[in-house]
Amino acid sequence: MLNRLGILFFLFTAVCLHAQDAKFNLNVSIKGIKEGKAVISFPFSGNKIADKDTALIKKGKIHFTGKLSAPALCSVYLPESKIRFELFVEKGNNNVTADAAGKTKNNTLPVLVKGSKSNDDYLLVSSYYRKQIDSVYELSRAEKDDAKKKILSKELEDFQEKNKEKVMEFVYAHPNSAVSAYFLLFNTNDYNNDFKKIENLFNRLGPEAKESIYYPRIKEDYDAISRIQPGSIAPDFELKTADGKIIKLSSLRGRYLLLDFWASWCVPCRESFPQMKEIYNNYHGKDFEILGISDDSKREAWLNAVNGDKLPWINVIDEFPEKYKPARVGSLYAVHYIPSSILLDREGRIIAKNLHGEELIKLLEKLLNN
Q1: 10 Å Cβ neighbour count for 358?
Q2: Which residues in the chain are classed under CATH 2.60.40?
Q3: Buried b vs exposed e over 168-204: b needs ≥16 C-beta within 10 Å?
Q4: CATH 3.40.30.10 placement within the chain
Q5: Tens-digit pLDDT profile for residues 20-71
Q6: At CB < 8 A and 24+ separation, what contacts does 149-154 make?
Q7: What is the pLDDT at residue 149?
Q8: Pairing status of strand 314-317 against strand 288-294
Q9: Residue 160 and residue 165: Cα distance in Å, rounded?
């Protein structure tokens, strides 16, 4: 599945209104690099820190000063050496030491940080995750045998599930941490089908977590997920087809409807279409319809995919009201990954989410043949 959050990682900015900003200092000492430039960014920065700024490396030292409302993840990139490292910075002094010779295969640099309890917390989860995922990923890249690649892929999926639980355990145990807010932001959609768990974690968040730059987006996602729980009426919307016809979701009531979120650039989405066509042909005559909702920002790419793949169902394209921000309907339905789908009943109520292939067929058989 393709992560839309990953695409937005350096583009989306949130608004944080709750806390008063305080000064922080980032002091970096790097062995093996004397001079150069450092690009410093704060993903999802909504406070007074610039999204991206630069500092000079002088005699192996980097110094950067800014203001924070709460601890935040800072990414530092050294373009000349193509080295990157990240850390959670806090108010006050954050002292970092590193050795350029210790860079990993993907050019990330392990660093030692003093003065940031938040970074210690961050490493409790992220270091474990990265060591494991990097190891399996490197093995998968090097493996030539398809069967062994599938085994490694399954191993990676299993590990990601275990890590997800580890992340949520951390959030539950540290509800007042900005680090918990960061991890919850990037895992909320993974628990889309377990709303009680997300509700519990969301309601546990303390003042520091709520003052973080991540909380506004968490709140936005939480509100969206709460709207699309099974049994709820699907939020109404209007989007246009290729010929400019406006399709209103509520106008399609009276049949079972699958909302399919996809994009022309999404390989797994398009690989699923042959089976989806079979499902459509088998059940379309039994009060079943599909509404394809494209996440393409380029209309031509969407049209080429619809026509090239000969998609027989209703197709509309989502809207991007603001540059560099998520699509309107995708945001309304908390869609962070594609392919993603939601099945509605004849009254427009949500039945299930993210059913594909045999799971979808099994449910349609039950619904349409009874």
Answers
A1: 9
A2: 7-114
A3: bebbeebbebbbbbbbbbbbbbbbbeebeebeebbeb
A4: 238-368
A5: 678 889 999 988 899 999 988 887 654 434 457 888 999 999 999 888 878 8
A6: none
A7: 72
A8: parallel
A9: 9
Radius of gyration (Cα) for the chain, nearest Å? 23
**Contacts with 124 (C-beta within 8 Å, 6 or more apart), sequence order:** 170
Contact 280, 313 (CB under 8 A): yes
Please give the structure tokens belonging to residue 21: 């900003």
pLDDT tens for 80-139 read 888 888 888 888 999 988 888 877 666 676 778 887 888 888 887 777 666 666 676 667
Asked if 69 contacts 213 with a C-beta cutoff of 8 angstroms, the reply is yes
Specify the CATH architecture of the domain 238-368: 3-Layer(aba) Sandwich (3.40)
Reported pTM: 0.70
DSSP single-letter state for residue 150: H
Start-end of H helices in 246-323: 267-271, 273-283, 299-308
In the block, which residue shows the tokens 């399609």?
252
> Which tens digits make up the pLDDT trace of 226-258?
889 999 999 999 999 999 999 999 999 999 999
Structure tokens at 293: 């909702």
Mutual angle of helices 178-185 and 117-142, in 10-degree steps: 30
Read off the DSSP letter of residue 233.
B
What tokens were used for 237?
């919307």
Top-level class of domain 7-114: mainly beta
